[in-house]
Design goal:
This is G-protein coupled receptors family 1 profile domain-containing protein. It contains nine helices and two strands, in the order ααααββααααα. By secondary structure, the chain is mainly alpha-helical.
């Protein structure tokens, strides 16, 4: 009898999780549509003037790849392969291989995006503290090199796990009798994703490193957000006296924009860090509410990531006058 409330709550969570798939799909489409022009604007020569903008270019590229993978997987799952259509072979080689590549790219660029967000806030904090001096960290090349390094490190980490997977033939698929367009006695080979070796060992090591990475990200973001907030307040009076009104306002808007982006990153990264911490150090019993939440955690976390990625275009447009001017230039409008 004591388990009945838990079972009802688990069923309720399962029902919500099914809707989150759809929400994630919709947000991913919106984010994909918004991030394409966002990236084009960031790539404009008038925007490529500092490491802040070059890091945001890296973030936009990472977000686009993650959002594209989410949209591709959901489209295939809802309407094509994975839709439980008896007339479609859901286990074709190229489809399973595309999902494997997609999973690899998603983990690589999602992780890189979070860390680029950390370094975006960190770089801006250092630049603010060294006001009046030109640092190498403020040059655009720093952001480009940082993006390459983080994507490279993230790729090595993901390759450690995904290099062991292969797509092997498992059986034969035959279309249902009601299916039309197939010749008599038609069949296709079916494939399955398998791991060569002890998957548990590789997966455990991978999750430990990934969990520590996510936990560090979720810890760094609020710390950087607090430091940025106080640094903005501290430098406001000094900048107002030493800089022109236009330069001061643009600098202040940029700092506030990065602060807002950092807060959004805190919201999207904290659940991931908590989930990984629970998986690494928690004792999860079967059929428990906590196990259900952790099991569906990746869905909620992915939805938060997509929402965060979709917000970057809006945040930049509302808080950066240079961004708005570049938009007008791209549209052929007067400044």
């Amino acid at each position: 009898m004591n388990n009945e409330p838990n079972e009802k709550l688990i069923e309720f969570i399962n029902g919500i999780a099914e809707n989150v798939f759809l929400v994630q799909f919709v947000i991913s489409i919106i984010g994909l549509i918004m991030n394409i022009p966002h990236l084009l604007i960031l790539l404009h020569s008038s925007m490529r003037t500092s490491s802040t903008n070059s890091i945001m270019i890296g973030i936009a590229i990472c977000d686009l790849i993650v959002l594209s993978e989410n949209v591709y997987e959901r489209v295939q799952g809802y309407w094509f392969y994975g839709s439980r259509n008896p007339c479609i072979n859901d286990f074709k080689f190229w489809y399973l291989y595309s999902l494997l590549i997609g999973d690899f790219l998603l983990t690589v660029f999602e992780r890189a995006s979070f860390w680029l967000g950390v370094f975006l806030a960190f770089a801006r904090l250092i630049i603010m503290k060294a006001a009046g001096t030109t640092l190498k960290i403020s040059k655009p090349i720093f952001g480009y090199l940082l993006t390459l390094v983080l994507v490279g490190l993230s790729s090595v980490h993901s390759a450690y796990l995904y290099h062991g997977f292969s797509i092997t033939q498992q059986g034969t698929w035959k279309p249902d009798r009601t299916c039309t367009g197939y010749p008599a006695n038609y069949s296709e080979p079916t494939f399955v994703r398998r791991f060569a070796g002890d998957e548990t060992v590789f997966s455990t090591r991978y999750k430990i490193i990934d969990g520590v990475s996510r936990i560090l990200v979720s810890v760094f973001y609020p710390i950087l957000a607090i430091l940025l907030f106080f640094e903005i307040r501290k430098s406001a009076k000094f900048a107002a006296k030493t800089l022109s009104k236009t330069s001061f306002e643009e600098r202040h808007r940029t700092c506030r924009m990065i602060l807002v982006m950092t807060i959004f990153y805190v919201i999207s990264s904290a659940p991931a860090g908590i989930s990984d911490y629970v998986q690494l150090f928690g004792n999860l019993s079967t059929k428990s509410i906590l196990l259900t939440l952790v099991g569906y955690g990746s869905i909620f976390i992915s939805a938060l990531f997509c929402l965060n990625a979709s917000s970057h275009c809006i945040i930049n447009f509302t808080m950066s006058s240079k961004y708005r001017q570049t938009v007008k230039m791209c549209l052929g409008m007067k400044k």
